[in-house]
Amino acid sequence: MRNVFEKIQELEVIPGYSKHEQLVQGFINSIDSKILVKGDQLPSVNVMIRETGFARETIVKGYKELIERGIIESKRGMGYYISNVDTGQPLKVALVLYAFDSIQETFYNAFRDLLVPNVHIDVFFHHQNIDTFESIINNISGKYGIYVVTPMPHPKTAKILKLLPLQKMLMIDRFESMQGDFSYLSQEFEESSYQVFVELLDTIRKFDEMVFFSRPNSDLPIEIMKAFKRFVKDYDIKYQVKKEYLPGSVEQGKVYFICNDRQLWMMLKDCENQGITLGKEVGILSQDDDPIKEIICGGITTYSTDFNLMAQKAAQFVIGQERIQEVIPTVLKRRKSL
Known about the structure:
Blueprint: H1 2-10, H2 19-32, H3 45-52, H4 56-68, E1 72-75, E2 79-82, E3 91-97, H5 102-115, E4 119-125, H6 130-140, E5 146-149, H7 157-161, E6 169-173, E7 183-186, H8 190-199, H9 201-204, E8 209-213, H10 222-234, E9 239-242, E10 254-258, H11 261-274, E11 282-287, H12 291-295, E12 301-305, H13 307-320, E13 325-327, E14 330-333
Parallel strand pairs: 3-4, 3-5, 5-6, 6-7, 7-13, 8-9, 8-10, 10-11, 11-12
Antiparallel strand pairs: 1-2, 12-14
């Protein structure tokens, strides 16, 4: 049994590994190395505490996970035994998203389709609430093989993410700076937004004013507002920033920049009811693309990162578990609305 303890201790040098993960992976490595075979009895909880120095709670939690994964079984009054040496069971992935909107759904569908049936995916939503985010991370830490997380901008985010083993975590969509070597697939918001506005400059100038709908304290990245303010100042564009679109308030001669799809649908309905021609009497630019924006009202001009590409690369990370640090390009798709 001494070799089993050595397998557990070997994992101490891996950054970000919790003691719980060391214990579970140490036993799995011992089985894969044939140090342990089916029917072998595992050390008691007290022996594990003495040999590893781990807390009782950690040992019990580790044994519980091995039982749930069907690798060991507990026999009343006799202890724990190896019941299954097939450790190649489905990898468990925790996917933490901010909400299940159309964009996150696009990512999820592509991600899931590339991984099932070999990978088990559990999905969690934090809804841009830091307490919910912290609760989710606390609850999933140490229970999954891979963690794919959409973070939220908050001073506590980096500290919360440190609860996860960084070499097993992939940050997606939004990037939050933190210490340590971790993988990410993110968007870039400020410079890409600015360049999109510049590319549309000649068309924007055909309208009297540019209106940007942005609610205070919303989940909209602040970098987009910075890009918008810089653009209208650099090119002397008359503009307004409004909290939200009010039904019936669409005006001809304006170009609208809308990041909220619910407000976009309201404006499109008003344009249709009032017989307003998109691209001529009113211009519309929407952030984030999805299939319906390609066909509705003759097509809505959008700019967006490629979430299908992000999903493909995220799936590759899960399968290969090789470090990746990449910003997914932003693409402008010009259509009838602008």
